[in-house]
Structure formats: structure tokens, C-alpha cells
Design goal:
mainly alpha, two-stranded antiparallel ribbon, about 80 residues, 3 helices
Amino acid sequence: MRTNVNLADDARQFAEIYAHANGLTLGDAITDLIRKSSQAASSASETPKFGRSASGFPTLPPRDRILTTEMVLKAQEEEFV
């Protein structure tokens, strides 16, 4: 469907960069970003269920991705640069 929209300059620039980085047209990039946003909003509304370790320490629910010490150290380095 063809339509015209007015975008803020920063939103247009972000969509253009996203389109270029992913080899998409601007329209496909905007569609993709809207769909991803919709999925993120629906999954973010789910309240995580916290658990407790054997020692009683609160724990986060398991996810698909494991956070390693190296990832934390890299993030700390980038934050202070």
C-alpha cells in the first residue's frame, strides 16, 4: 500500500540508516521497525517471575542469552570511554 507520512528528521534518519544497514528499502525498513516495536511492546508487558536461589537470593528468570563476565567487562569499558 502506498501512503505518504511526515516523519521527524531524527526518525527518518534512523530509518534510513536501518534500511541501508539491512539492505532494505525505506518503506520495508519502517514496516520492519514498526513490527519489531509492536512485538517488543507485547512481550515487555509480561511481568517476569522472579525466583530465589538455594540461599534465598532473588534471581531473574532464565533467558535465551547468557550474560558472561566478558560481556559485562566490555560494557563497562565502553561506558567509561
